[in-house]
Each structure stands twice: as structure tokens, then as C-alpha cells.
# Entry
Amino acid sequence: MSFSGTVKEELAGQISPARHCQMAELAALLHFGGGVCEGGKHLCLHTENEAVAKKCFTLLKKAFNIDNVVTNAKGRMLPDGEAESKVLQALHLGGNEGCPIALQAPVSSLLVKNSCCARAYLRGAFLSIGSMSDPQKSYHLEFVCDERAQAEQLRNMIQGFGIEAKVIRRKKYDVVYLKEGAGIVDLLNVMGAHVSLMNLENLRIVKGMRNSINRRVNCETANISKTVTAASKQIEDILLIRDRYGFENLPDNLRQMAEVRLEYPDAALKELGGYLEPAVGKSGVNHRLRRLSEIADGIRS
# Structure
């Protein structure tokens, strides 16, 4: 199962004990996974995820004591007109005389005014229209909305928990998305996917350590390459001085430096300083090698 599927499976198994939270989550399931059938007369739930359908029916049972839900080939609907009317009215979805069932409009602010209800609504939204990429490859979580107003409301709800979210237009859909690992972890916590959160954190730690090691190795490799290149240039300069100018014409400190560098071509600057008589520090070695380079450049010119 994909990581996204695992998150949904965990969320589908959570039922809020409070009725107001049950109603908020049910509203999200119907807003994003619902529809109308039989000529627009009845409310239907369309989903290929059996866990989501089961959760919707469980919420109907707990929040409204409705358990006589019938399925048909086009979707799942509430057959009892009185029960359906009660649900539509409680969730502010319209359905009254002269008022069509309103599934595309933003959810009523009355249903999500409490923080706990907003968490439940986001949980229902993710179950219906959410998805998440494999965190081993990239960090990306999104909600695909049919309407811009729904997308903006979701984004604002997520940002209400201090989590950065953005909206982008993709073909005919408006997509609310998060691309930062820390933000996705925070949103999983808000929705109540605590097991998935821990799994994601473990992956982030391993990934962070791997990236840190790679950066360190690359840095050390670059430093080694830089040192080798510098040493090769120094030896090239010293050989040119020896053949074209002669060590005997150099001051004693530079002659000794040139001989030590030729004898220890792979040694670091600090190590080279220990071979000199008397020993000098890294900056002293660097100064002498720079003077030898200037002499070599003079010979070349």
C-alpha cells in the first residue's frame, strides 16, 4: 500500500467522540465525495474507497442515528426523505423547498468554528480528495478541489493551524498543496494521523542524515581535490625553478621549502611545516610556497 493509502486507512479508523466533530467530518466527506442522483432529488456518496464509504455510514449512524443506507449502481444514497432532509439541514447543505442541494459551496463556518471541528473537517477532506507522494522520493501533499472557493477555504483552514499552504490551478481543478516536510508533519498531526506522522518523521531523519553525510563527503572530496590541484601546481613551479633557475640561487628558507615539498608531495601544509628546520606554522608554509610560485611565474614571463 502507498504511503497516502496508509494515511487514509489510519484516518478512516478514527471516529471523533463529539457529535459536532462527527458532523464536520461528514460534511467534508459529502462536500468533496458527494453528489446528487435520481434527478437531483437525493444525496449520494461516490467513492471507490470502501473505508471512506464505511466511515461515512458510521458517522451517519453516530451523528444522526441513520443506518438504513441503500446502495445502487450510481452511488450510495439516503433513501429516507425525512432522514436525508435532517442531514442536509444539519450540515447546511440546502435541500429545502426551492433550495438545491449545495455540495460545491464552501462549508458553513458554523460547522468548523471550533478547532476540533476544523481538524475533523480536514480529516474528511483528505479522505475524499487528498493524496500524498512517497516521502522517500519527495514531500508533497495536496487536496484537489472542483471549486476555487473550496480550495481557498481549505487553505485558510490549514493556515489557521500555522501551516503554510498554497493554491494552484491545474487544468480544471484548484489544488491546495504543501511541499515542506515540516508542514506535512504538522498537518498529519492536525488530522490525527499520528502513526503515519511518526513513520514520516523517521523517514525524514534518515533522509536528513543521508543528505548530511553526502554533503560532508562532497565537501571533503572537493577539499581533497583542491589540495591535490594546489600541490601539483606547487611541485610544477618548484621543478621549473630547479631546472631553470637553480635551488642554489634561492634564499635558504625558500630552498628548504622547495626541497621539503618535493620530498613530501602529498603532505598537507601543516605537516610540511613540521619538516622544516626550524618548524613553521601553516601560514608560514603558505607564504613560502606563494613566494616560490611568484618566482616561477617570473621565470615563465
